[in-house]
Structure formats: C-alpha cells, structure tokens
Amino acid sequence: MYPEVLPGIEPLAEYGWSPQVAERFADSDVQGTPGRIVRAGRGSSEAVTSAGPLTVRAAGHHLCTGDWVIVREPATDGDTIGTVCAVLPRTGAIRRADASGRSEEQVLAANVDTVVVTVAADTVDLGRVERLLVLAWDSGAQPVVALTKVDLTTEPVFERVVALAPGASVVEVCALDGSGLSELRDRIHGTVVFVGVSGAGKSTLVNALCGRDIQATAPVRQGDGKGRHTTTDREMFPLGDGMTLIDTPGLRGVGMWDAGAGIAAAFPDIDDLAQHCRFTDCAHESEPGCAVRSAVEHGDLDARRVESHRKLQRENQWVTARADARLRHERTREAKVLSRAIRAYYRDR
Ligand SMILES: Nc1nc2c(ncn2[C@@H]2O[C@H](COP(=O)(O)OP(=O)(O)OP(=O)(O)O)[C@@H](O)[C@H]2O)c(=O)[nH]1
Ligand SMILES: [Mg+2]
Ligand SMILES: [Zn+2]
C-alpha cells in the first residue's frame, strides 16, 4: 500500500522512513497518509507526513514525539488540522514513571534507536547516570553516554563513568572546540534521543551535530550550577542520511517504570556475579555464600554501585506493585458498578 522508496514519501525520508517502516505501515489496515510526530503537544501536535508538515489532533490516542502515525488530511479547504487515525506499535520507547506521582507511565520518545545520556562532566551524579542508563537500556535502544563540558573539570570522571556504563560507549565532548563531536556522530544511528538534567548540554549537542543553532541554550545558574529548563518540548530534527535527533526538556526526576529488563541490562556485572551466589534469591545483604558481597570485599566491585542497584530494584518493585494494585482496584470498582447495575435492573423490573 505504501511505496518503499521515495515518490510521495520525500518529506518523510528525512525523518527516518525506511523499508522496515514501510512494512510496518503495510501491516496496518487503517487507510490514510503515513506521518511521524515531530513535536507532541497537549492539544495538537506537529507531524510531518508524506505530503509535508501538518498540525494534527488525535482522538483517543496519546501521541508522543517519534510516533509513526496514519493521518486523515483536513476534510475541507478551510480546515488546517489533520486527524490521527492510528498510531503504529512503538519500538524503542523510552519511558519513566509519570512525574506527577500517579501510577502511570510517561513515554518520553518513541521509535528510538539511540539514547544519548547527556552528563555534564563538572556536575556528575553517578547514581543519576545509572538511573538514566536503566531507562535507556529498558527502551531497547542503544545507550551512549555523552560526557559534556570536559573543559570545566580536571577530575578523572571519564573513568568513573566508563565503570558504571558496561555495554555503552562513553564519549567526551567539548562544545567550545567541538572535540569529541565526530566520535559521538560515529556512535549514534537512526532516531536519537538526548536525555539528561537541565543544563547538561543536550541542546548544545543537537545544535553542534546539526551544524546550526536550531535550539535555544542558556547558561546554568551561578551558584548551584542548575539548568534553567530552557527546552520545553520534545522535538525532532533531521540530521541528514535519514537520521533524526530528538531534544528533550531537562528531566527533574527519573522514576522507574516496569524497568526490570533495563536494570538487568544496565548492571550485567552484578547480574553475572549473582549467578554465583549460593541462594538463587540472594538479596546480597547478609546471606552466606554471596558472590556480590564477596566481590565488594575484595575490591572488585564498588559498594556504591551495589547499593544503587538495590535501590533501583526496590523502587521498581514498589512501582510495579502499586500499578498492579491500581489495576486491581479499577477492576473491583468496575465489578461493583456492574453488580449494582444488575441489582437495579432486577429491582426495577
Ligand atoms: N564550557 C562548556 N559549556 C557548555 C558545554 N556544552 C554546553 N555548555 C553550556 O551549558 C549551558 C547549558 O546548555 P544547554 O544545551 O542549554 O543545556 P540543556 O541540557 O539543553 O538544558 P535544558 O534545555 O534546560 O534541559 C549553556 O550555556 C551551554 O553553552 C561545553 O562543552 N563546555
Ligand atoms: Mg535544552
Ligand atoms: Zn548475593
């Protein structure tokens, strides 16, 4: 139904259209124009479709930046807003627990291939880097750590970050002289999302990679070095060769959301050791024959990292249990409403 290559698809070629994506569209039986969400908003969102840019609304779908969608063009000439009829199943969605504290997930970006965990070298928080790496691994995309602002510190942070990022490359970059940029460019592919706290230098990297100032940046605050939450939308920009970059607002909190697989992928060192613990359900606390504690005692593993792993696991279990409880609660409520309706039906007969 959708041509594999370009005629009619030109605008989308810049936004990651590929034969694989074409196949995913072909699998859908919903009729309409293929498109991708380049900026998701509360009311309306911006899309690029095979016919060009289009503002769209979605009835009943929660859109997020990076989504592949099937769009119905505006019906009448005066109307400028398209309707999203379907959202293709997401691959590589990066999500966290909703910051509002409700037991809900929030998808930060969809159909992502690379997650650039952006960390300022002068304000590294090791636990936060691990947390972001869990989120990144859990998305199914390839994580890369960009250690920015290396001109602002003489501490050996690179080694520390490498030690907590097994399986991910760590690239040192400096926006002042552009060093490390081509290395970073070599390690990213497909749809690339930048995540990190405000002020980490995400937008600066997006601008540097694109070679022009498309995103506003702002100096961090004097005194506490915190960012000013300059970027407010999750927005996608074409980089050329079909690659796209998604800049995101600084993350205030990174709550675990059903991230068991992400935790295992981010901590393969601890997982490997745990295979050698005497008890299969070892919590690495006071059990005899614990290989994890033994590695810490021998100086082969950082105690901080074990504690960080435990904290993330506990949080993840807690969030999952709470979400389950909410689901159960909703089911009970539905059942009550139903039984009340049945009672009323018989009473009123
Ligand atoms: N010295 C130095 N400053 C940098 C570097 N990279 C970024 N900065 C500065 O750090 C500040 C914050 O950068 P941004 O790119 O706005 O940070 P951000 O992560 O997009 O922040 P939010 O949009 O608020 O989430 C800006 O003043 C940048 O110029 C670097 O490598 N070296
Ligand atoms: Mg920004
Ligand atoms: Zn153990």
Would you write up a description of this structure?
- The chain contains ten helices and 13 strands.
- By secondary structure, the chain is of the alpha/beta class.
- The chain folds into three domains: 78 residues, Beta Barrel (OB fold (Dihydrolipoamide Acetyltransferase, E2P)); 154 residues, P-loop containing nucleotide triphosphate hydrolases (Rossmann fold, 3-Layer(aba) Sandwich), CATH 3.40.50.300; 71 residues, Probable gtpase engc, domain 3 (Ribonucleotide Reductase Protein R1, domain 1, Orthogonal Bundle).
- The strands form three sheets. The protein has a six-stranded mixed sheet, with helices on both faces.
- Helix 4 links the parallel strand 9 and strand 10.
- The longest helix is centred in the C-terminal third of the chain and has 45 residues.
- The protein is globular.
- The protein starts with 9 loop residues before the first helix and ends with a helix.
- Guanosine-5'-triphosphate (GTP) binds next to helix 6.
Radius of gyration: 23 Å
Average pLDDT, rounded to a whole number, is: 89
> By helix and strand content, what is the structural category?
alpha/beta
Coarse shape? globular
Uncertain residue segments: 1-7
Q: Tally of extended strands?
A: 13
Question: What percentage of amino acids are in beta strands?
Answer: 15-25%
Cα distance spanning the termini:
53 Å
Which percent bin holds the helix content?
Answer: 25-40%
CATH homologous superfamily caption of the largest domain: P-loop containing nucleotide triphosphate hydrolases
Write down the secondary-structure element order: HHEEEEEEEEHEHEHEHEEHHHH
In the CATH scheme, what's the topology name of the largest domain?
A: Rossmann fold
- Tell me the major beta sheet: 6 strands, mixed
| Helical run tally | 10
- Strand order across the biggest sheet? 10-9-8-11-13-12
What hetero molecules are bound to the protein chains? guanosine-5'-triphosphate, magnesium ion, zinc ion
Question: Any guess at the CATH architecture of the largest domain?
Answer: 3-Layer(aba) Sandwich
CATH class of the largest domain: Alpha Beta
Overall number of structural domains = 3
Family: Belongs to the TRAFAC class YlqF/YawG GTPase family. RsgA subfamily.
Cofactor: Zn(2+)
Binding site for GTP: 148-151, 196-204
EC number: 3.6.1.-
